[in-house]
Amino acid sequence: MTSPSPITSGAQYIESLRGRDLRVFFMGERVKEPVDHPVIRPSINAVARTYDLANEDPELATAHSSLIGRRVNRFLHVTESVDDVVMQNRMQRRLGQLTGTCFQRCVGMDAFNALFSVTFDLDARHGTPYHQRLKAFLALCQEQNAVVGGAMTDPKGDRSKGPGAQDDPGLFTRVVERRRDGVVIRGAKAHQTGCVNSHWIVVMPTMRLREADREYAIVAAIPVTDPGLTFIYGRQSCDTRAMEGGDVDQGNATYSGQEALIVIDDVFVPWEHVFMDGEVEFAAPLVDAFTTYHRRSYVCKTGVGDVLIGAAASIAEMNGVSRASHVRDKLVEMAHLNETIYGAGIAASHESKKTRAGNFINDDVLANVCKHNVTRFPFELARLAQDLAGGLVATLPSAKDFASEVTGPVLKRLLRGRSPGDALARARMLRLIENMTMGRNAVGYLTESLHGAGSPQAQRIQIERAMRLEEKKGFAKTLAGVNE
Ligand SMILES: Cc1cc2nc3c(=O)[nH]c(=O)nc-3n(C[C@H](O)[C@H](O)[C@H](O)COP(=O)(O)OP(=O)(O)OC[C@H]3O[C@@H](n4cnc5c(N)ncnc54)[C@H](O)[C@@H]3O)c2cc1C
Ligand code: SF4
Question: What is the residue with the minimal CA distance to atom 8 of ligand 2?
Answer without folding.
Answer: 106
